[in-house]
Amino acid sequence: MLRINLLLLLAVMMSALFLVGTQYESRKLFTELDRAENESRRLATDQQRLQVEKRAQATPQRIETLAREKLQMRPASPAITQYVQEGSTAGAAQ
Predict the structure, then answer these.
(1) Model confidence pLDDT, tens digit, residues 27-59
(2) How far, in Å, CA of 94 to CA of 90, rounded?
(3) Domain total of the chain
(4) Which of 58, 73, 85, 86 could form a Cys-Cys staple with 67, CB 3.0–4.6 A?
């Protein structure tokens, strides 16, 4: 009878230790999941913010201003436009 009681006590102790370990692992995984969800929300917010900034940077007015100021470009006009005729390049090559 004493052996059975010791065996049962050992089985109860082992199952209690297993239960504690399982609960610890469960809490740890839940914490990691919560962190991952927070990171996902942060990245989604950053993506939306960057898309808004991208749209703001790509407006036609901004591009035209940059072209004039940084690249020294100006609108095309008939006075500075050079027209190439189809026959002039073919005749020069022969």
Answers:
(1) 999 999 999 999 999 999 999 999 999 998 888
(2) 7
(3) 1
(4) 73
DSSP 71: S
Domain that holds residue 30: 15-74
> What pLDDT, on a 0 to 100 scale, did the predictor assign at position 93?
47
Per DSSP, the residues of 18-53 read: HHHHHHHHHHHHHHHHHHHHHHHHHHHHHHHHHHHH
Tell me, yes or no, whether 48 lies in a domain: yes
Residue 30, domain member (yes or no)? yes
Give residue 24's identity as a one-letter amino acid code.
Y
How many Å apart are CA 48 and CA 22, to the nearest integer? 39
**How many residues are listed for the chain in this entry?**
94
